[in-house]
Amino acid sequence: MVGAGLSGAVIGRHLAMLGHKVTVVDARGHVAGNCHTERDPATGVMVHVYGPHIFHTDDAEVWDYVNRFQTFMPYKNRVKTISRGEVFSLPVNLHTINQFFRATMGPAEAKAFIESKADTSITDPQTFEEQALRFVGRDLYEAFFKGYTQKQWGVSPTELPASILKRLPVRFNYDDNYFFHKFQGMPRDGYTDMVEKILDHDGITVQLNTRFDRAQAGEWDHVFYSGPLDGYYGYDRGRLGYRTLDFERFTHQGDYQGTAVMNYGEVAVPWTRITEHKHFSPWETHEGSVLYREFSRLCGPEDIPYYPIRLTAEQSLLRDYVARAETETGVTFVGRLGTYRYLDMDVTIREALDCARRFEATLATGERMPAFTVKA
Ligand SMILES: Cc1cc2nc3c(=O)[nH]c(=O)nc-3n(C[C@H](O)[C@H](O)[C@H](O)COP(=O)(O)OP(=O)(O)OC[C@H]3O[C@@H](n4cnc5c(N)ncnc54)[C@H](O)[C@@H]3O)c2cc1C
What we know:
alpha+beta
């Protein structure tokens, strides 16, 4: 199992429960991959080291699974944003609309109003900007979508595909819960504690600070690889594009911003958001506070890859690596890096469970375990 993130831990646990001997290696000095949390020794705040993670899912099996290893505390993600010198509620909802237009509209009235603002001359939106203008019109687009998207992706929204904005990003009620999912929460003792418990099995050996190299693949009956697909081949045909994040950490005595996530929609402010980590554990009390100012930029060779870009150029390179990987035997590429996709934690766990069951089935039938159990 290459990688001790959720993918490696969940597959490893499943196979260990079946009686297999599993070795999990990770190049980092901790388990849990990008979900890693640790307590700041000075303030006691649980810090989401690689950026904030909120668990949300409609998948009852996945929800039951994580609850076996951790007590989940109620948590709703309520995001605020600063735009034109005011604080607004996100996702854009009736409160945002009424505040922005200095109005007191009800749902039906607001819906008709936003429809009247939408640019109906755009019949076949091709770009993110056209799609947003088609949905919400110029005023809301410029205040809430344009600057943030440009900072997040590092290119103008006129160069991004319309597909990024799949549906109307506006609610005509006062629901400010960021996620729609039925089950939402935060692990009481953090994600790293949860992953340590998933990995706590007699059949599993964890080796941290251990980098896996493709040359070692033959030493194992089967390798599940949750590292970067292009990295498996030493990036010899080029690098799949990613965005990375820089976190400027700072501390504060007391409450800095009164909420967990404050977005900054304007291009003039270089960071995309400030996250205040103690508010991700609202059941705890801490006098001190730990905050991250978040900056997004293109990922370089030494940076941590966060968000796959997946535009046209990356798609063709990806197809190349996938075709090559499909000729491998004895290795399966899994997780967000192995399949070069953005995956929420619940999807990662779902795919890991399915992958482990597929492996179990191939052992029973003698069929070959494929290089991918999902489409990369
Ligand atoms: C900024 C950010 C915020 C997010 N917020 C949320 C959220 O709020 N809610 C949500 O559901 N999801 C969120 N996610 C997604 C979540 O991080 C992923 O679903 C999850 O981390 C995927 O787990 P994984 O095991 O596939 O990959 P990872 O967590 O990346 O684990 C892969 C591991 O493999 C190791 N590795 C790689 N190559 C090698 C090698 N050659 N040898 C040894 N080890 C290696 C790495 O060190 C790493 O620890 C967020 C992601 C990002 C980037």
